[in-house]
Amino acid sequence: MRRSLRSLRFLPLAAGTAWSVTLLILLIVWLAEGRPRYPSQSNPYVAYISDIGAFRLQPLFIVGAVLTALTLFGTILTVHLAFHQTLSQQPQAFAEHRWRRSTTVSSVLACILALASCACQICVPIFNKRHHPQTHHLFLSLALAGTAFTAISTTITFWSEMWPRNNPTVHHHHEKEPHNETLRRRCIIASNSIFLTEIVLGACFIAFLWTDQYRVAGILEWILSFVLTGYFWAFAGFLVPCGNDPAAAADEEEEETPLLR
Predict the structure, then answer these.
(1) Among 171, 221, 176, 50, residue whose Cα is nearest residue 121
(2) In terms of pTM, does the model score above 0.70?
(3) Residue spans of alpha helices (H) in 35-99
């Protein structure tokens, strides 16, 4: 089981890549066409992602959203399953783990919210802004809210994993932290930092909209979307095994064994 979970590290990479490629194509096409203003476009200066994706690039937008949503849900499910699998496989190492019951609740909540938000993400390009504006905005709001609360639940689950003193692989303060555990911890820190950055940028985006500074607001929406790619990619580090994981060690030995003996 551990082997299969570790092998799913491609999911967050696929989610981030699918999303970034979709955004790049939409942006490049809009710029190449001379930054046209679409009939459904409310921002007079910068077209929003939904504006570009509501016309002839809608099939691309749908495919990109479906791929991103499916791989993102798989990512959230995998990182939480891997985390609790490690807890169950190393009961002595995690004996002093704080908030263990809370992390179980937050993990289940994160997976449920991820499923709901990913379903809404798929509906966003299907019910495009041009033909179904009210439905589009409803699914967009639900998708954003679901993604935000999924990120909050995931942050709660992995919060204690950011600190070396709570790291179960380091039993004495004079021992050096294993490299894979350092990488895993830094990816968790990066993920939480990007999430906090998204909150700040989102608040700025709303503030600029309220003050009718549409050009800056439009640019911020694109920045927010591209920064989200880094949040997806950071999850690959969540699946790096703990330093004292016996199953992971066995897998690594197996990988190093030649096929021809």
Answers:
(1) 50
(2) yes
(3) 49-52, 58-89
